[in-house]
TrEMBL record:
NCBIfam families: Por_Secre_tail (TIGR04183). Residues 1-18 form the signal peptide. The lineage of its organism: Bacteria, Pseudomonadati, Bacteroidota, Flavobacteriia, Flavobacteriales. It comes from Flavobacterium psychroterrae. Keywords: Endonuclease, Hydrolase, Nuclease, Signal. This is Endonuclease.
Length: 621
């Protein structure tokens, strides 16, 4: 968690600069690339401690004495500067395990400039000034992609670092974007590399490099690094790291000691002197809506510095800011028209003109438009033997990506949270996500019907083990009390969240939040949403029913829906037996609709036409 370090920063700055050897930069008198060469001559020829020696260096260079202040490894790809870290590593342990299947397994060494760029040659391969300790899973996801601003993320780590398509002007490949708190740190590592290896860098092939020994970077990536350098100034953490590495390697990162060198060499005009605004986003369109939300998407803007985000407006009011090219606006009113547009922003603080404006009317009230503010635990089973299960409900009214969510457990009311069970996929509006112990009795629940079936520690809880739902590493909902002691709060019982609870809570209150049922009550786990509980499913299958025809036999997951009495627009919903909406399309005017690749399972097809509803059960085998 971020703390107030203004005084500490001043102290460390004075101490840090005091530790620069007297006369170390005395020959750095030039400007432009002349100054860069002078700095190269100062910092070249450092002591090479070998690749394995990096872990020794990290014991003093990358210690968290600045956020949690707990002495753990400070990892830029997992540190949460404004909250609880999703996981922590101790120096000298949980390193190089070779098993990076999930975040929190173990950490390794991240070359900010990938090893493949310089063919793993020495001394580059072991230079701690641009090689940091990072979580092995996230390091693997970053791979050898360049750092850059992400337009649309395909992967997001638990602290918010992203991998995805590039928003850097002129580069269309994949990039990796760290969180804002460490963008300056990484930019200054790039500037260090460009200087320390000035004698060889022109021969390195890398998307960020232009093949020169002086400028080193392409214009677009240079502008981005300059912007990152300016928006995230040198921190106390960087100064301490620079001093620690100097003690091991006998050279320093000059751009931490003298931040002004960056602009003196590369003419850093960003962000204050770069006034070019991003281009306006195009092709804004609505992709989904409920009674209280609208989801929109658009084509990315371009910018010479790099687009950092988009502001989304509804009726001229700023509703949300996102980094990608889609957004969901929540908290809207049913059956209401909204005028929506977006504006792009860049790292220099410039804002684009408005995109095209669209008018969207929210759905009428009812349906799956929920009132919850966030995902929450909806059911908890602590039964006999291995009858253990958790259920998470999405009553927000909009689809929610689960990539940011993790379930963790504390054992016997003491100690730290477990590493966590990472969730994935998308939970559609009105749906439920079930997690069960894979050894659960079939008489209680069919584990094959669960979203996750596992023997992980998070699903071996007992009645005194608090279970938490985390989003981006921050606890948002809890069953039980963290560090509540060994007394049972919910043993041999099924708990179901009361319908009046519309928001998660980090404080557990059994009587006001939950209804209790006898041991091994499993009948409701993963059941249909509340607004579907009275739905009568006809037994007829694959035959005409009130004008609704399905053909050919949909058993292979590919079929057509024909509505032979159509006289107005209609909608189609396909709902799994667990209550999850797997397909939805509205305002259909054609009498024929095609469904493809529906997975194996039992489903309800529901067609709504004016005030009439037609329903058919299908089996995909």
């Amino acid at each position: 968690m971020k703390k107030n370090y203004s005084l500490l920063f001043l102290l460390l700055v004075s101490v840090g600069f005091a530790q620069i050897p007297s006369g170390y930069y005395s020959t750095a008198t030039g400007t432009g690339y002349t100054l860069k060469t002078q700095l190269y001559n100062i910092i070249k020829g450092h002591t090479n401690n070998g690749y394995a020696g990096l872990y020794t260096t990290y014991q003093t260079s990358d210690v968290d004495n600045f956020y949690e202040n707990d002495g753990s490894v400070l990892d830029m790809y997992s540190e949460n500067p404004s909250g609880t870290d999703p996981y922590n590593y101790s120096t000298g342990t949980t390193q190089r395990c070779g098993n990076y299947s999930a975040e929190g397994d173990c950490y390794n060494r991240e070359h900010i400039i990938p090893q493949s760029v310089f063919n793993e040659a020495s001394p580059m391969v072991a230079d701690a000034h641009f090689i940091t300790p990072t979580d092995g899973k996230v390091n693997g996801m970053r791979s050898n992609y360049p750092h850059g601003t992400v337009s649309s993320a395909t992967y997001t780590s638990q602290n918010g670092s992203k991998l995805g398509s590039s928003a850097v002007s002129g580069y269309s490949g994949t990039v990796f974007e760290p969180i804002n708190a460490f963008k300056g740190d990484i930019a200054r590592m790039y500037f260090y590399f460009a200087t320390r290896y000035e004698n060889t860098v022109a021969g390195y092939s890398y998307p960020m490099f232009d093949g020169s020994a002086n400028k080193v970077f392409t214009t677009a990536f240079l502008n981005m690094l300059l912007a990152w350098n300016a928006q995230d100034p040198v921190s106390a953490r960087e100064i301490a790291r620079n001093n620690a590495i100097y003690g091991r390697q006998n050279n320093r990162n000059p751009y931490i000691d003298h931040p002004e060198y960056v602009n003196q060499i590369w003419g850093g005009t960003a962000p204050s002197g770069d006034t070019q605004a991003p281009t306006a986003a195009t092709s804004l369109a609505s992709t989904a809506k409920t009674s209280n939300s609208i989801t929109v998407a658009w084509n990315a803007s371009t910018d010479n510095v790099g687009v950092t985000g988009y502001d989304v407006y509804a009726n001229s009011i700023l509703k949300t800011t996102v980094s990608g090219t889609s957004a969901t606006i929540n908290g809207l009113t049913a059956s209401t028209s909204y005028s929506i547009y977006v504006k792009a922003k860049d790292a220099a603080g410039n804002t684009s003109a408005s995109s095209n404006t669209i008018a969207v009317i929210t759905n009428a009230g009812g349906g799956t438009g929920g009132t919850a503010t966030e995902l929450l635990f909806s059911e908890y089973i602590e039964g006999s033997g291995n009858n253990k299960a958790l259920e998470i409900a999405n009553n927000t009214g909009s689809s929610v990506s689960l990539s940011a969510y993790t379930v963790k457990k504390q054992t016997n009311g003491a100690g730290s949270w477990s590493t966590g069970l990472v969730l994935s996929g998308t939970l559609t509006a009105g749906s439920k996500f079930t997690i069960v112990n894979s050894s659960m009795s079939s008489s209680c629940f069919a584990t094959s019907s669960a979203n996750i079936s596992t023997t992980a520690t998070e699903l071996t809880f007992n009645g005194n083990d608090a279970v938490g739902l985390f989003k981006n590493g921050v606890l948002i909902d809890i069953i039980g009390t963290f560090s509540g002691g060994t007394a049972n709060f919910a043993a041999d019982v099924t708990l179901r969240r009361k319908s009046t609870v519309t928001a998660p809570s980090t404080t557990f209150n059994l009587s006001s939040q939950w209804d209790s049922y006898s041991v091994d009550t499993c009948s409701n786990l993963g059941a249909k949403p509340a607004n579907d509980t009275n739905l009568e499913i006809p037994e007829e299958t694959f035959t005409e029913l009130q004008g609704l025809i399905l053909y050919p036999n949909p058993s292979n997951g590919n079929f057509n829906i024909y509505f032979n009495t159509i006289n107005s627009p209609y909608s189609i919903e396909i709902i799994s037996i667990l209550g999850q909406k797997v397909f939805e399309q509205s305002n259909i005017t054609d009498s024929l609709s095609t469904i493809n690749n529906l997975p194996k399972g039992i489903y309800i097809v529901r067609v709504n036409n004016d005030s009439e509803t037609f329903i058919k059960k299908i089996i995909i085998n």
